[in-house]
Amino acid sequence: MKITSVELERVLGVKSELPKTGKPEFVMAGRSNVGKSSFINAFVNRKNFARTSSTPGKTRTINFYNINERFYLVDLPGYGYASTGAVEQEKWGRMINRYLETSDDIEEVILFVDIRHDPSKLDIQMFDYVTQVTGFEPIVILTKMDKINRSQIKKQTAAIRKALHATENCTMIPFSSQSKQGLESIYAIIDEIMDAPETPETQV
Ligand SMILES: Nc1nc2c(ncn2[C@@H]2O[C@H](COP(=O)(O)OP(=O)(O)OP(=O)(O)O)[C@@H](O)[C@H]2O)c(=O)[nH]1
Ligand SMILES: [Mg+2]
Prior knowledge:
- With 204 residues, the protein is α/β, with parallel strands linked by helices.
- The protein is built from six helices and seven strands.
- The site of guanosine-5'-triphosphate has 23 residues, from helix 1.
């Protein structure tokens, strides 16, 4: 995939109306600090395009990034950020559910999990929820692979697959926004999805 244009086109707050973009949306979910915004920067090959931070809870909006005028990467606020407060988390939880349950343009959900750790309860819940709502398992991107050694990567990937109760068919990609390892596989998957002819189901 060649990135020819990127634009942060819409930024939604907790009460915003949901847009109908009419283009495939690749939705990015994961706990706060897992590396979603860093992934976007690697994906579009720009250092500080999406705001990243070592302080969790940086992304407090739903951000629609228009890529090549062809599809969107949709960056959801990270979950599990304790100091956000229960009421705020609840509000965002409802907004995220509303979006996942009502958008007509969601093509895939990508769940981000830190490769170093077993998935949290919230990760497992999110994986199940997405599977339920969309009818498909999310694609799982395992972030921060540069922080562990090669022999651990395989082991952790298997452990995370097991903990999520994901099938053998579930796509899991170890990734590093620092070394860009995994990026080509992710481009290839998105290209493949974008180039696939529409199935009768999605034509309705
Ligand atoms: N070593 C390493 N650090 C990473 C990687 N991805 C993200 N980080 C670091 O992890 C921290 C959090 O990254 P973000 O991209 O801001 O995380 P986020 O998922 O967008 O977090 P929220 O916006 O809070 O939901 C930052 O300090 C990043 O530099 C990676 O692949 N390797
Ligand atoms: Mg972020």
